[in-house]
Amino acid sequence: MSANILTVDDSASIRLTTKVTLTNAGYSVTEAVNGAEGLAAAKSNSFDLIVTDLNMPVMDGLTMIEELRKLPAQAGVPIIFLTTESDADLKARAKAAGATGWLTKPFDPENLVKIVKKVLGR
Amino acid sequence: MSTLDPVAVFRMEAAECLEAIEAGLLDLTHQLDDKDLVDAVFRGLHTLKGSGAMFGFEALAAFTHHCETAFDRVRKGEVGATSELVAAVLAAQDHMRALVDQPDADHGDTGHKLLAQLQAAVGAKAAAPATATAAVAAPVQEASAKKAKNGWRIRFRLPANSMANGTNPLGLLDELRDLGECTVRADTSAIPPLDELTPTELYISWDVTLMSEQDRSAIDDVFIFVLDDMELSVEEIDGAAAAMAALVEAKPAPAAAASVSSPPVPVVPVQEFRPVEAVPVKREAPAAIQAKAAENVRVPAERLDELMDRVGELVIAQSRLSQLASASTDIALRSVSEEIERLSGELRDTMMVLRMVPVATLFSRFRRLVHDLARETGKAIELVMEGESTEVDKTVIERLADPLVHLVRNSIDHGLEVPADRLAAGKAKAGTITLSARQAGGEVIISIKDDGRGINRERVRAKAESSGLIHPGQPLSDPELLQLIFAPGFSTAAAITNLSGRGVGMDVVKKTVEELRGAIDIVSMPGQGSEVSLRIPLTLAIIDGLLVRVGSGRYVIPLAAVEECLELSLEEDLRSRGRSFISLRDSLVPFLRLRDLFRTGTKPDVHQKVVVISTGTERVGLVVDQIIGDHQTVIKSMSKLHNDVATFSGATILGDGSVALILDIGHLVAAGQQQEAQLRAAG
Predict the structure, then answer these.
(1) Cβ neighbours of residue B254 under 8 Å, at least 6 residues apart?
(2) Which residues form the Response regulatory domain (chain A) (predicted)?
(3) Closest of B683, B680, B661, B671 to residue B591, by C-alpha
(4) Confidence band of B123 (pLDDT split at 50, 70, 90)
């Protein structure tokens, strides 16, 4: 079953890698370049999973996650954040904001697919 | 190069990122306390580090990490942004660029030196470069690698909000089942009465017997995202005990617990908690209005050039078609021809717009150059930019970059005085360099102006005489004298400084501009400064032209330069003979008889026409025999043999396959003005 995934990242190269990886794994991917766009996209479409960066201009990932979780329609939608921080504090903040899981950059494409499968429950 | 190569995309992105960082840093030098700028620079560094590590640019990631750390401290308010820090990161930024361009090259000690500078600037203890690698490395696996003899007994309770936050307990159970044979029992005793139940909360806990020799870490991996917040107990069991345990534990709450043996299906109560079913929220229908995204497509320049060529060929073919159609009486053919003419015109216009980029992309790099030169020379410099939104063909922009760098260096090195001299001359301490761009007809005029000391005519003359460019005492007009600085090998700098003399001379600047079919003008007032203006055609490929006939030859005049067309009556022609002026609404406009200029040796037509062309301020009339009409022209450059033919800027192929030459407006106007000046001098 193909799932709809929204990826939010200000880096075009990461977006491309993510998209290529997920598309090859059979998912359909929608892209947004910052939290505000991601939020708007999530409001107008329904996604099965959101993968987001944390540091972004306009609206960062933490704020986006908080805003998403305020929306009843977004209850239960898994959110994976990509982070370069090994910083436990940031991880805790993202989780408190309502993120489901994380993936540390740099990541292997297989790792991303593994995590996506995990949170989607296959 | 495929556009879908992430490394190539990364390189482009890194270049943009570095530009943004640089712009942020330069702005920051003026407003050190601007938090938004600090954030923007931090984000840029952060992205560069993260993406760099993703795509194998380890050295870049490690190096950038230090700068990012420094800015993170500023961002968190631990240290203030100082001009030393900004300068150190600016310098470091060049190193990052090198690391992007040549990730494998040996960059020697540059990185260490820059890091030392950076550390001195933030006043931190020098961090060992090794920490950087650690920062981008994968997180350490902490879980024990201990293996189970026969299996595990796992009891877990997830945080109440974990389903709302996207964790699906069924998925976790499935993952446990992947590890081995599972017996899953749900403890539903904590489910409250219906009226107290919050549908998004998770009340169930699970007891799982897993028969598997997997590591304990494999179990932790299953719960990795919730591990910190959940209750989890994992005990090692052996096979016999496991079976017993499942039975014994089933007893205390037999009514609520459901025991399912492997391979189990999800127990009923759990299923009710699937978020989508339990929370019957009306989702907004997928809106027709998609999120408004800046949807840009990156296309390699050579593909655009290819497309341009095709459009050019289409334009030529279309022009043949119109010629054939106009000679035909077939109405259907003529209407198709008109349709195609309209379409190819639109296609051409679209193509043009695709290639246009604002000059801002060119100008922005001068902020850094001026900043560096100011530091190097000790001169105070104010950079003013005007008309940055003016759009020019991308190829033109790229070709102009180096000449402009040279001109700006020249202005700063030769033009601007040191602060003391400026004060003595009654000027402001800081010199001003003005970069401006504006569109005039079919040309863009880009000028570099300084308010320095102006070009020293005596020095130019002395230098030109000593190098044999002119005879001693040879009379020259002021513009001619100033043009001397474009002669190869000409430099008035007493000593070749670090700034000038980098292998690019004014002759190279001139050559580049002429290759673009442009021209250079210099205005210089002693003591007040100089202005160098580059007049460049808007585009290099296709122009709208006015096709005219002179004698038996056909020529194209760029339409953008045409002001109006007049009839030159026979009597006015006779009357003006020898004067070569026509009066045009109370002003006298000089004109050139192209028939004489091209020595056609034919008799003039009875009704000659004058095409008045201009380059902004100056006008000149061109006398032609016949105006044939508007014509879309694909410019083909002429061969090297025709390099010194200044009257023509190129050639084009007409619909019938014949060739027409394209007139060089700048040159003709100059010739007309010169003629006017001579006539005026002759009285």
Answers:
(1) none
(2) 4-120
(3) B671
(4) low
CATH code for B357-456+500-537?
3.30.565.10
* pLDDT tens digits, B624-645: 999 988 877 777 777 777 767 7
Q: What is the pTM of this model?
A: 0.49
What are the two backbone dihedrals, phi and then psi, of residue B319, each rounded to the nearest 5 degrees?
-70, -30
Residue B289 CA neighbour count, 13 Å, CB half = 5
Phi-psi region of B225 (alpha: psi -120 to 50; beta: other; left: phi over 0): alpha
* Tens-digit pLDDT profile for residues A53-95: 888 888 988 899 988 888 888 888 899 998 876 566 778 888 8
CATH code of A70's domain: 3.40.50.2300
Scored b (16 or more CB within 10 A) or e, B648-675 reads bbbbbbbbeeeebbbbbbbebbbbbeeb
Confirm or reject contact between A86 and chain B (CB < 8 A).
yes
What is the C-alpha radius of gyration for chain A, rounded to an integer number of angstroms? 13
Distance CA B534, CA B514 (A): 10
Give the CATH class of B542-682. mainly beta
Is the pLDDT confidence value at B436 over 90? yes
Residue whose pair of structure tokens reads 């005007």 in the numeric block: B386
- Say if residue B218 is exposed, middle or buried (CB neighbours under 10 Å; 0-12, 13-18, 19+): buried
Q: Which residue of A has its CA nearest to B292?
A: A37
Which token pair is A71?
């929306």
At residue B435, the pLDDT reads 92
Rounded to a whole number of angstroms, the distance from the CA of B219 to the nearest CA of chain A is 13
| B542-682 matches B6-122 in CATH topology | no
Across chain A, what does the average pLDDT equal? 85
For chain A, positions 89-108, list CB contacts with chain B under 8 A: 92, 95, 98-102, 104-107
| CATH dotted code for B6-122 | 1.20.120.160
The number of folded domains in chain A is 1
CB B491 within 8 A of CB B505: yes
Beta pairing, strands B151-157 & A101-104: unpaired
Residue type, B169: P
Domain span at residue A32 reads 4-120
Q: Which residue from A minimizes the CA distance to B49?
A: A84
| Cβ separation A104–B164 shorter than 8 A | no
User: Does A8 lie at the interface with B, CB-CB under 8 angstroms?
Assistant: no
pLDDT for residue B337 is more than 80:
yes
Distance spanning both ends of chain B, measured CA to CA? 65
If one looks up domain B150-244 in CATH, what number appears?
3.30.70
